[in-house]
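ARCHIVE CARD
Drawer: 12
Card no.: 0347
Subject: one protein chain, sequence and derived structure
Cross-reference: see card 0346
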Amino acid sequence: MGKEKENNPIYERNTLEFVTVALEYCSFIETTRRFGLYEFVDKSVKLLPLLYLKATLLPEVEQNEDVELEFSVTEDMYESVRNQMAGLLGEKDSYLETFHPDMQYSDAPIAAFISENLADVYQDTGNFISLFKQENEEVMREAIALCRTNFREYWGQQLLNALKALHTVRYEDEENLEMNNE
């Protein structure tokens, strides 16, 4: 590695490992239709903790407001992956949300959806990957900074909410899931 890459957060091992896992996550979400319910849930409960871990290890990068970023995950792409997952998960898609900001004002439980949580994570990781693929170092640095911020403020919690619900689907209903898989 040259001197210019030595202290560059773009080429740090933690960044490259996050890129790898984020890319795997996006590919997985984009190909939901290839999976049965059991396979989808089983892979999700393995991939999500890894994505969470790798996001926590992203290096700190100073944000640069002057860098213009073009996001690639459109509303149509978001809806497409969300609908695919909702269709696959069926009645298992919804769960009761306890961390919702409105929960403190509500007497009734608030319903949330695994498909929506996973699509939210997909939107941020997908945008990150597309920015990284541009191979423009300023854009790549900004992508890391933005991804870290969005992880802390939003999609990290979405990922954990989905994981908690998926854990229940995967392990409380294991026999039914496996039977449906066959």
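Annotation on reverse: The beta strands are 94-97, 110-113. The chain has a mean pLDDT of 91.
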